[in-house]
Amino acid sequence: MNNIGIDQWILIMLALLTLLFGTGLLFRFKSRHKKEEKSLSSDQKSAVRKKRGLIQLSPKISVGDFMDISLRWDNKIRITVLDIVQDKFDVTGSEKELDCVDLEISIPPMIFKGVSLYGGKYTKEVALGRYRIPTSKFSDERLPSLYTYSTGKDSFDFLRIFAVHINRHAMQVVLDIFYCNR
């Protein structure tokens, strides 16, 4: 699939989410997701927004640590922060070195049906299940984001991850994680 096709899919998915959210067609947040709120620190609990089948987290994760997000059917997404590095990206016609986070992401195939993560223009897949993303210092959040989605007869799942802030001195990363299910 070429980049034009991916951009079109992103726009379609975002339009669909906007339509579903705006019309109230998404189901309310279910109690099965309460496990993940209990596993968060007090800083992270304040960053959780739950409404109509949506989860939005802004966790602060140290290098070497991981975060599990509980999903339906006792599945979970595991996001591990491996390292903070600098990498070159072609930004507006010139290469710039940007602070990036190396993530290892484990997604249950039962939920996302074996689909891998897609990345925006400023993301790199460095190995199978390992991704490098810069901070979201762009006006378009799609560019440094990782995302995936899955649809079924009676279900819809969407996941988006991007780095909000990278603290090289404390070796910590603040991520923005958005998960939607129906």
Topology readout:
Blueprint: H1 3-23, H2 34-38, H3 42-45, E1 49-51, E2 54-57, E3 60-62, E4 66-70, E5 76-91, E6 94-106, H4 109-112, E7 118-119, E8 124-127, E9 130-134, E10 146-151, E11 156-167, E12 172-181
Antiparallel strand pairs: 1-2, 2-12, 3-12, 4-5, 5-6, 6-9, 7-10, 8-9, 10-11, 11-12
Can you give keywords for this protein?
182 residues; alpha+beta; 5-stranded antiparallel β-sheet; 4 helices; 19% helix; 46% strand; globular
Give an account of the 3D structure:
The chain has 182 residues and is an alpha+beta fold. It has one domain (27-181): Tick-borne Encephalitis virus Glycoprotein, domain 1. The chain has four helices and twelve strands; from the N terminus they run H-H-H-E-E-E-E-E-E-H-E-E-E-E-E-E. The chain has helices at 3-23, 34-38, 42-45, 109-112; strands at 49-51, 54-57, 60-62, 66-70, 76-91, 94-106, 118-119, 124-127, 130-134, 146-151, 156-167, 172-181. The strands form two sheets. Strands 1, 2, 3, 7, 10, 11 and 12 form a seven-stranded antiparallel β-sheet that branches. The longest helix has 21 residues, at 3-23. It is globular, with a radius of gyration of 16 Å. Residues 23-38 and 45-52 have low confidence and may be disordered.
